[in-house]
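Table S2 (continued). Query chain:
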Amino acid sequence: MFASCVNTKKAAYFNNLSDTTLAAIKVDFEPVIQKNDMLQINVSALNPAEAAMYNLPNTYSAGAVPGAGGMTQPVMAGGANPAAGFLVNQEGYIQYPVLGRIKAAGLTKKALTDTIQNQLVNRKLLVDPIVSIRFLNYRVTVLGEVTHPAVVNVSSEKISVLEALGMAGDITIYGKKDNVLLIREENGVRTTRRLNLNDAASLNSPYFYLKPNDIVYVEPSKSKVATTSKANTVVPIVLSALSLVVILVDRLVVNN
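Corresponding output:
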């Protein structure tokens, strides 16, 4: 009965979208390294034995994020195996073999790659080294009125809000697609934005693609809140009435 009251236009994604071609969103997807990030850094060179010592960090499991409060364990978007990583400490540095402390926070992966590569060459430690860097903790959190609230690990390092919702089992029939909340924290500054996923204009939003540690929250609709409130009110009354009936019947039986 309650499901029949749901507005079908509110339940559909992009209900004003017709056949068209959309221009690419001009947004820089290169994430900036922040404190507490876990980085996988691989170094290769003409002599593999010489490069081996630069690939010996601590072991880190990309999926080892505990679930809590009904949240599922992390969902791997693209599938990632446990890997070794370098933690960016509270001062923004990583402790790298031989090279020592290297500033990482505030840099892009390319900038840090150039820094490590230049130090290896300038200090004549390796010949023609190749450095590759990946985020091991690139993840987003999806909460609220979705089928499976989850922390989604993103091995591809690029994910849209639709993909994140899909990994969480999609918004339920009671979720408000027209007021999805995005919470983003960068450089200690927290910002919030609202996305209307009923409107095709959200496809061109600079917030359509998510960044590491973004939180997506889907609000419940008024019908869901009303349904829950009625259930919480009616069920105790019904149970109390049934208990009273059982007691009266029991006493009548005993008296007879």
